[in-house]
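Subject: Protein entry, chain in single-letter code together with its fold tokens

Area: Proteins and the way their chains fold up in space.

Attached in line: The record itself begins immediately under this heading.
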Amino acid sequence: MLTDTLLFATTTFLIWVALVYSLSAVWWLIEVLPLGIGWNSSEMDAWGLDDLQVRILTIGAEDVVQATVDSVPDGVAGVKVIAEQDIDIDGAAVSVVPDSFSCKATNKGRAVEWARRHISCDAEYVLYLDEDTLVTGLTGLPDADFVQFTEKPIFTGSRLAYLCEVFRVGYQFEQRAFRRLSYPLYAWGGGFAIRHELEDELTWDVATITEDTNLIWRAADRFELEYRLVDARFRNQAPPSLKAMIKQRRRWMSGTLKDNHILPLLYQPLTLTRVVSWGFSPAIPLLIIGASLVPGATVSIQFFELISTALLAVLFIYMLFGLWAYRKHPLLWPVFLILTPLAVVLHAIGAAWGVISPIEEFEVTEKVVPETIEEVNPELDEGAIAAHDGEDRLVRESADEFDTELFRD
């Protein structure tokens, strides 16, 4: 009797796990294929650079911010650096958030809200960049309320972190479908532009550690938000260590779970299945092993093995899309594909940690100075980052040129 009960419980558990993972994978495929078709069909230069004010957020990473400022094209309306301490930056006006300023938002959100209230802006759009975002391919904006630029993290010294970033960027191909959704599922704060008028109506004055996603969810909740994606592949830094990457993922997951209530009920099950599929995907083999130890569970094992094999194939598809985004040479693909299970596990650790033990405070991911990036990436000559103009690519002249480096640019 006990064995039968255990068998039933195991079978039921496996079926539900398979269902959750399947829903997330199927939805991603729907986004990339039917919903993602025609994503780049709108005019990309409806607004010029003189319609943009750039704002860069930092605590006080002077050398890192200087490289970001240098990458902003000359034609923008203005470049503003919002810092927590006084720093000296050429080519930008630096404003320090006073200690006396208080609002509902904390950490980075507090700084952005102070800037919204106190820094004047006559431009149509505000383009937000992280302190380490190197602008590429920026010539203008499409006519939309919210414009998301794609990212392409650059190697900073950790091959394993870089491997995980290639995998993550492949998953982000789903962003091409966000313009067809009432609620874009997330935003990358390292490179997005928002109409200044819309930003003023929304404000940043909310308590959250994922300000970018929180903002776009609130915007979609209040307005008929027009979203556009620009595949410019801004070059932000990959985490320089596994420790930094894991802590970063933990913060992302913690903020997503905390802000999930903003979404309508129709979207909440979708985001929660994605949470499970991200944070606990490495547990599938353990579930199979557990099921095999239950006598008579052959049917459940066969069913679960079929589903898990299909889901495993989807994980390799994520990696293939990442390899395409990075333009890695096809001869390098087998190495990345072999390492995909490792990337899945490492990418999931921080997310699972965020589910089990969410954090409340914002913690900035560790950055490296431009000289380090140039040193570890042989394609970059000394001084290449400082000389970058933001309108072209940082590495290689053509978007169609293959990258022949394995774990670096």
